[in-house]
Automatic annotation (TrEMBL):
It is an enzyme of class 1 (oxidoreductase). Its EC number is 1.1.1.1. The keyword Protease does not apply. Residues 217-339 form the Alcohol dehydrogenase-like C-terminal domain. Its cofactor is Zn(2+). GO terms for cellular component: cytosol. GO terms for molecular function: alcohol dehydrogenase (NAD+) activity; S-(hydroxymethyl)glutathione dehydrogenase [NAD(P)+] activity; zinc ion binding. Residues 35-174 form the Alcohol dehydrogenase-like N-terminal domain. This is alcohol dehydrogenase. PANTHER family: ALCOHOL DEHYDROGENASE (PTHR43880), ALCOHOL DEHYDROGENASE-LIKE 3 (PTHR43880:SF39).
Length: 399
């Protein structure tokens, strides 16, 4: 049994105190897990565009500070609360922002991964059990001491910390022999992208695909489409430096909208005799979504929305445009049910069906988290991996 079980743990976390303010690495207190909760020691975490979006505070309704952001990670269970049966101390786990209770009506159906109790909720900042937080601090953002104040949770996960507490529905056990650094990617970006291609669009062999936005999520869509045998994968990005990586992920054609004098969808229709079979919007830009929609073939084309849209604008389509027979749908966490489906997805990744290694473009120590944010903002990284805790149990594997 861990010495710390049942006790408050004092550790370091990167706390977001306000929109666009640099994160502050400081001491926090992490309470023990309550019923059906799990306390996890985070080993590695990476940064997704959704962390960036929340930190910049574009969507006012989602603002809640001080807060611990972060939702892509891998860690070890430190202790579990009453009633937790499927993970135990010492298990390697990945947190998932979209949970699976296994008992609600949605969890019992195959068609959706949006668990009634633990589906992703950007407004959620408190734990379900008691409406409280498991994080607190007596240190101000400037390092001075203060009365104990609570720190909000984020996206069911909060991984920019040495220890976090999650609902057990949002913790997935992984093979202890899995390459841990790469498993962090399955917490969000890679599962989201590959799943959008496999589970939502159900990309078939020999089909054509267009991916808008070649960050980790878009490139994971491309990698997923490649693995399913798509014959042509057109990558669209306004940052041409993403094209080099795209080639590794099976992107066959590249379009930089800045180089065109016509709308992107017209170029894609020219290249594909009327449009692609599937398109994926992975930028979070509503105007790009319209281009993605119009770039599919009339009659059967299918567009999958993956980006997160902070704008209050609604769908950029006239209802009559749907009579052309193009379909449009959204995908959360790639349609994966985390507890039931991620372990086998992780196995497939370990067999090389999906390449994970190219997604980690940078590695930095935890203290450099603000530099890692900057790399993503500048479009200079796919995933920057931050090492939070040193661990020795799997030394032989070099992690
Ligand atoms: P990223 O910042 O790494 O990549 C975004 C890419 O889009 C960049 O390469 C950028 O150059 C490109 N881009 C931006 N605006 C563009 C434009 N107007 N035209 C062409 N290209 C443009 O982000 P990411 O981590 O890959 O995430 C992508 C999106 O997916 C974000 O909106 C993120 O919030 C969202 N997301 C959704 C889910 C989900 O479950 N649906 C999960 C994770 C992330
Ligand atoms: Zn994410
Ligand atoms: Zn459920």
């Amino acid at each position: 049994m861990a010495e710390t079980q049942g006790k408050v743990i004092t550790c370091r976390a990167a706390v977001a105190w306000g929109p666009k303010e640099p994160l502050v690495i400081q001491e926090i207190c992490v309470d023990p897990p309550q019923e059906m909760e799990v306390r996890v020691k985070i080993l590695y975490t990476s940064i997704c565009h959704t962390d960036l979006g929340t930190w910049t505070g574009v969507n006012e309704a989602e603002r809640a500070f001080p807060r611990i952001l972060g939702h892509e990670a891998v860690g070890v269970v430190e202790s579990v609360g009453e009633g937790v049966k499927d993970v135990k101390e010492g298990d390697y786990v990945i947190p998932t922002f979209n949970g699976e209770c296994g008992e609600c009506r949605v969890c019992k159906k195959e068609v959706s991964n949006l668990c009634e109790r633990y589906k992703v909720d950007p407004m959620k900042r408190l734990m379900v059990n008691d409406g409280g937080t498991r994080f607190s601090t007596t240190t101000n953002k400037d390092g001075g001491s203060s009365q104990s104040q609570r720190i909000y949770h984020f996206l069911n996960t909060s991984t920019f910390t040495e220890y976090t507490v999650l609902d057990s529905a949002c913790v997935v056990k992984i093979d202890p022999n899995a390459p841990l650094k790469q498993m962090s990617l399955l917490s969000c970006g890679v599962s989201t992208g590959v799943g959008a291609a496999w589970n939502t669009a159900k990309v078939k062999e020999g089909t054509t695909t267009a991916v808008f936005g070649l960050g980790s999520v878009g490139l994971a869509v491309a990698e997923g489409a490649r693995a399913r045998g798509a014959s042509r994968i057109i990558g669209v990005d306004a940052n041409a430096s993403k094209f080099e990586k795209g080639k590794v992920m099976g992107v066959t054609d590249f379009i930089n909208p800045k180089d065109l004098t016509k709308p992107v969808h017209e170029r894609i229709r020219e290249l594909t005799r009327g449009g692609v079979d599937y398109s994926f919007e992975c930028t979070g830009n509503v105007d790009v979504l319209r281009e993605a929609f119009l770039s599919t073939h009339a009659g059967w084309g299918s567009t999958v929305l993956v980006g997160i849209y902070a704008t209050p604008r609604t769908l950029p389509l006239h209802p009559m445009e749907l009579f052309d027979g193009r379909k449009i749908t959204g995908s959360v966490f790639g349609g994966f049910k985390p507890k039931s489906q991620l372990p086998s997805f992780a196995q497939q990744c370990m067999k090389g069906v999906v390449k994970l290694e190219p997604f980690i473009t940078n590695e930095l120590p935890f203290e450099k988290i603000n530099d890692a944010f900057q790399l993503l903002r500048d479009g200079k990284s796919l995933r920057c991996l931050l090492q939070i805790a040193k661990h020795t149990t799997r030394k032989q594997q070099g992690y």
